[in-house]
Write a structure and sequence with these properties.
Length: about 230
């Protein structure tokens, strides 16, 4: 049984599993695969094809696989999930969230209100990417990562000013259990080690060692993460 609004627009080749709820004015593009028990709220756009600006550095004109939405996912109102994206079981994309092409999101991960995961990212399972966080293209998040509201990651040390930037784009890596506090800024190519912790408001210009807390502008190591806070003890 499916509950599909009469105002939803569903293109050819779409597969929708059992017990799904498709809200008012949802758009589901061609060939999208939606699992069972999925809820998609009003005005969401699923399987969108990316636009290619003349001077875009990361959007590629290439054939993309269909968008795949796993069992039990919830997609909020006005959220956009692009073609070439795979959401595994139980993922939540909150209202106005955006997940770009060639992104894989692991099971039970939460992508918060207004958060963006740019193209060519891999996000692990049981992560929390909170309100208005920005995950830049070519980034990797492990499992059980925590990205607080307003975090900004970056992938271009040249800010688009030289052709060299096109060859040296590099996103951030957050290893299993890594945590980033509210409003922190992470520079291109930074690696936050397993259980590494970035304090709120920090600007991270160097890699964060596993199990260490960094703080400040620029961020410096201040101490170890408390033993009780380590992922293995949760």
């Amino acid at each position: 049984m499916k509950n599909i609004s009469k105002t939803a627009v569903i293109a050819e080749g779409v597969i929708i599993g059992d017990n799904c709820q498709i809200g008012e004015y949802v758009v589901i593009e061609a060939d999208t695969v939606i699992g069972a028990n999925v809820r998609i709220d009003a005005f969401a756009h699923i399987g969108k094809t990316p636009m290619k600006a003349a001077n875009s550095a990361v959007t590629k004109e290439s054939e993309l696989d269909p968008c795949v939405i796993g069992d039990g996912c919830i997609i909020g109102t006005h959220a956009v999930v692009y073609r070439g994206c795979t959401l595994n079981e139980g993922v939540l994309v909150a209202d106005m969230g955006e997940v770009r092409e060639r992104v894989t999101v692991g099971e039970k991960t939460i992508i918060g209100k207004g958060a963006t995961v740019e193209c060519d990212c891999k996000v692990g399972s049981y992560c929390k990417i909170q309100t208005n966080a920005y995950i830049t293209a070519y980034s990797t998040l492990g499992n059980y990562c925590f990205i607080a509201p307003g975090v900004v990651t970056s992938n271009d040390n040249y800010a688009g000013r030289t052709k060299k930037c096109f060859a040296e784009f590099k996103g951030v890596t957050v290893c299993d259990g890594g945590r980033i506090g509210a409003g922190a800024v992470i520079k291109p190519g930074i690696v936050i080690g397993e259980d590494g912790f970035v304090a709120a408001g920090s600007v991270v210009t160097r890699d964060v060692e596993p199990g260490m807390i960094v703080m400040g502008v620029p961020a410096k190591t201040v101490r170890k993460v408390d033993e009780e806070q380590l992922l293995k003890n949760q």
